[in-house]
Amino acid sequence: MIASTEDANTQLQSKLSRHQSNLLLARLQRKVPIEHVSTTIAGISYPWTRVIDPDKLLEHALQNNEDGNVETDPFWAATWRAAIGLDRYIGTLPDLHGIDVLELGGGSGRAGIATALRGANVCITDASNMALLMCRYNARFVANKVYVRRLDWAKPFELQRRFPIIIGSDIVYNPSLYPILEPCLRHFLSDNGVVLLSEPQRHTGDRFEKWIRAAGWNCQPSLIDLNDGERQIRIFRCQLA
User: Fold this and answer.
1) How big is the CA angle at 18 (ends 16 and 22), to the nearest 5 degrees?
2) Which CATH superfamily is 5-240 part of?
3) CA 71, 154, 68, 234: dihedral to nearest 10 degrees?
4) What's 173's DSSP letter?
5) What is the pairing mode between strands 100-103 and 163-169?
6) What distance in Å separates the CA atoms of residue 137 and residue 49, rounded to the nearest whole number?
7) Considering 13, 137, 167, 227, which has the largest number of Cβ atoms within 10 A of its Cβ?
8) What gap in Å lies between CA 66 and CA 128, rounded to an integer?
């Protein structure tokens, strides 16, 4: 268990050596301005590295007509409320020790790391190399439980594995991606497996719920209150009918 940044260095064993971690950190620092903070993940204090001003990355992408380009898409740079909600929902699940979990659209790694801290073996994927770099660094304390892979949803065959649990936070905001996402879920999900997707009750989430049911899935929504004065996070629990 991680009680503080200092404790993390002494209590957790990682497959990443200090030298490897320093190399990752140097690569990050060359690409984006970052800061080191502490955040609560899986109910404990965890050392976290984040982009100082993700809005500037978004402005740069828009100014350079890079919106929608997975390599320059800056949305990975923020920790979205949906990831925090998914973290809390995962904490209500039965024992995850030894369970293989796939995260789609992992960004900087919040939900996947939360799942690993609860004992699961997690494959965190994203289409952005910058997101994967940040994720690898943030996951350095649980590297024995996490591996990070680049994944294009349109080419799921590049990763030949199946998982009993698939997770994703705030990945259903764009309806144009649903026809790519759904076959990807089918490709990776084990028989009788479950997909857990979180989003902050956007209208696109309403559309996704109807769409995924029409595609042959059972979909059960539930709500997680973050007690922050904003809308509750909606969790879609999806299984093939």
Assistant:
1) 100
2) Vaccinia Virus protein VP39 (3.40.50.150)
3) -110
4) S
5) parallel
6) 8
7) 167
8) 13
pTM of the model: 0.88
Q: Which amino acid type is present at position 89?
A: Y
Half-sphere exposure of 74 (CA within 13 A, CB side): 21
Domain boundaries defined on the chain: 5-240
H or E, element range at 193: strand 189-199
Sign, Cα dihedral of 171, 174, 175, 180: negative
Question: In tens digits, what is the pLDDT along the chain, a chain of 241 residues?
Answer: 444 433 443 344 444 678 889 999 999 999 888 999 999 999 999 999 998 877 676 666 555 554 444 444 566 767 789 999 999 999 999 999 999 999 999 999 999 999 999 999 999 999 988 899 999 999 999 999 999 999 999 998 888 899 999 999 999 999 999 999 999 999 999 999 999 999 999 999 999 999 999 999 999 999 999 999 999 999 999 999 8
